[in-house]
Design brief:
The chain is an all-beta fold and 193 residues long. It has no helices and 14 strands. It has strands at 17-19, 24-33, 39-42, 47-56, 71-76, 80-89, 93-98, 101-110, 115-120, 123-132, 136-141, 145-154, 167-169, 173-182. A seven-stranded parallel sheet has the order 1-3-5-7-9-11-13, with no helix packed on it. The radius of gyration is 17 Å and the shape is globular. The relative contact order is 0.12.
């Protein structure tokens, strides 16, 4: 799914895939690029399962873009999200989920100008995941119950004046195993003559 257009510039319309009202989608070898929003899943009875998927370059066009325009996956009001071998590339936020269940395995989120993974509540399981060159790593808030295993967070960077964190936990509980956070230094050779 490539190049959908929002009905109003900067709105959440024009989503590559929109699931609501108890809808379910199982997709393999899924590619979505250049859409105002990658995937939107809304409602506690709604669900998506992605395997071997890439969501890249969602565009938040217009001077007054909706807050979640440009996000890879937007999960609202408690849906189930299951992803295996998923890449979320160059987004305003990789996956933003409000409540529900998230099961992510072998996921890469790179180049996000917002949080790579953000969970407000819900049941969260993340395994063998790499977050690279994002403004924030993982955010777990509002009673999220989480298990993070073999998570690598590389080169979290500050964007603008906002605080940048590799891992942020507030009013949530869970466990982490094999969590690695690193900042690589870039060395440049200079001409000393």
């Amino acid at each position: 799914v490539t190049g959908t257009v929002a009905a109003t510039p900067g709105s959440l319309s024009g989503t590559a895939v929109n699931i609501s009202g108890g809808g379910e989608l199982v997709a393999q070898r899924f590619l979505a690029t250049g859409n105002p929003l990658g995937v939107r899943v809304n409602g506690g009875e709604s669900a998506i399962t992605l395997t071997d998927a890439i969501i890249a370059d969602p565009s938040a066009l217009g001077p007054n873009s909706a807050g979640n325009a440009g996000v890879g996956i937007l999960a609202e009001a408690g849906p189930d999200i299951t992803a295996t071998r998923l890449a979320l590339l160059r987004t305003r936020g990789g996956l933003i989920q409000q409540a529900g269940i998230a099961r992510l395995e072998n996921v890469v989120v790179a180049g996000s100008t917002g949080a790579a993974l953000s969970f407000a509540g819900g049941d969260v399981g993340v395994v063998q995941t790499t977050l690279a060159d994002n403004a924030n790593g993982v955010s777990l808030t509002t009673n999220a119950d989480f298990e993070l295993t073999d998570l690598r967070i590389v080169d979290t960077r500050k964007v603008g004046v906002a605080t940048s964190r590799a891992l942020y936990i507030d009013a949530s509980s869970g466990s982490t195993q094999q969590l690695v956070e690193e900042q690589r230094m870039s060395l440049r050779a200079t001409d000393a003559t």
